[in-house]
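tmp note - RING-type domain-containing protein
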Amino acid sequence: MAEEEVEVLQSIYGDELVVERDPTKNVSPIILSMKILPALQSQCRTGIYSVIELPVQSSSKNHNALQYPKISPKVHLRQQPGFDESCMSILRKNIQEYIEANSDMPILYDIFQMIQNFVESERNFPCTVCPICLDGFNAETVAFCALDCDHYIHRNCFVCYVNYTRNEIKRELSEWPEDMKSKVDQVLKCPVCRTPLSEQDLLTVGEESITLDEAIVDKGQFEFNWEEWQAKLEELQVVFERQKAKGGLIDPKKERKRNLVTDDTELKLFALLYKNGYCYSS
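out:
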């Protein structure tokens, strides 16, 4: 029954499902491994590496092999950086409870579907921070993308990073002589691990977004209000003068010049030494 179910899974998942078995051994487990991703491309490509082992045991009475589904499968999940450990623990617990409740039943497809539903659930957003802006992620309000190297970046941050990197490459190519341009590294890389970005990584945000200039960022939130700054400076200047008059504040201008040696400082020092008899005129 195990072989038939594996064939059905291969017809469903195709090359995404990797099946490993040792044909040289009569009693050998079947290993099914697959990285499960969201079904919709519009969703984040955060995935989970799942491995299901279909164990086989030899019976000492009749030397026949007991195998799945008589023996429950073993499920191994490799946690990705974008998933919270507590959520992964809940998923592992739910899978184990489902296996125990459905012993001696073909449940491989159901297990993969449980993982698929988890990947596409509301918990599918990174628990780390964006390496560009160092801000967190929110699956409901902030669009982000998962690179093939399993690092996560806000979509707008990724667009700006790609544009900036491309502009820097163009600048270097324009500055280097023709016979040296081949030495310029023109490969776009992950800002975290420096792994070259794949075509799929760039397609994550769409070709149209990649060609946009930096105007995609709301620069209004970064504009500096000079009038407000000048008014605040004048307000603080009054406080500064009042504190300085009371002797409770160090004058930064005088402090910066305290150890500054100038011609005037040398003359004052010479006069002081001469006055105290350390210098004699010839």
